[in-house]
Amino acid sequence: MKVDATSEALAATPATAQRTISLGKAIAYFAFSLVINSAGNVLTLVTSAKIHPSFLGAAYWTAAEANLGTAFHWNLFWAFLIMGFLTAVLNAVLMHQWSWKRIAGNMVFMVPFSALIQLFENFFMGDYPNLFNGLPAARSTGMVIFYVALNFLGVALIATAISIYQRVNLVLHPADDLMQILRFRYFNGQAAKAMWASYIPPTLMAIVAILVTHQFTNFGLGTIFAFVAQGGITGIADKVVFPKLKHQALDVGTH
Fold it and tell me: Residues 84, 107: contact at Cβ < 8 Å?
């Protein structure tokens, strides 16, 4: 008897085609994960910018989108929003179905996410001096080590946030929707392999940005750490962060 690949993935991971939590809980989980994801992304960008010469780099998607924004003179809000929409289109192709509802959900995610990215960037860069003067430049070995740790923490926050809102599955960032589609449709529930495959689009973005600007920025040690570890951390967070929360209403398309 032939077994559907999606069914195998569901059997191998704590997932359900139904919703087992209330809407109120789902929104609370989602809001929490959105904030820590935004903060984590900006931490990787800002800590990279505060070390000279820069060797740290941002999380993989963040680095690519920031470079593309520089190439086309977009701020972070527009860079994240435009690339999010294009990724949502790719997701529809991979799922073999076009769902305006799903794409609208991706965009619903992108607007507050992009706004929070801009807000946290302004905060950590010191644009709100009455609240915080911003992270200072690293001028000592101790500060460099601290920023490396802070950068890696940012990656861990992103990975943990992905784990939470993928399981809640109300609306998703298009990049994380891509990872989830790959994970349960093509990789039998394996988070790390799906994450690596999902890095193909930002790699292409980065190549375009380099061709336009002739610069290679925001990529470094932290980017390598994100590439190697982010998917694995997401898989671990599935089990240890809110462990009773299962993947809700999983839908990765038709065959």
Answer: yes
CB-based contact 191:238 (threshold 8 Å): yes
Q: How far apart are CA 156 and CA 43, in angstroms?
A: 11
Place of tokens 């059997």: 11
pLDDT at 1: 37
Q: Is the peptide bond preceding residue 202 cis, with omega within 30 degrees of 0? A: no
Round to whole Å and give the CA distance between 93 and 14. Answer: 26
What is the pTM for the complete model shown? Answer: 0.80
Rounded CA-CA distance 102/133 in Å is 39
* Short-list 175, 161, 180, CA closest to 242: 161
Residue by residue, DSSP assigns 81-131 as HHHHHHHHHHHHHHHTS--HHHHHHHHHHHHHHHHHHHHHHHHHTTSBTTT
Q: Do residues 107 and 115 make contact, with C-beta atoms less than 8 angstroms apart?
A: no
Phi, psi angles (nearest 5°) of residue 4: -65, 140
Q: 3-state DSSP call for residue 132?
A: strand
Question: Cα(176)–Cα(121) distance, rounded to whole angstroms?
Answer: 21
H-assigned helices in 16-99? 23-49, 60-72, 76-95
Tell me the Ramachandran region of residue 188: left when phi exceeds 0, alpha when psi lies from -120 to 50, beta otherwise: left
Is pLDDT above 60 for 59?
yes
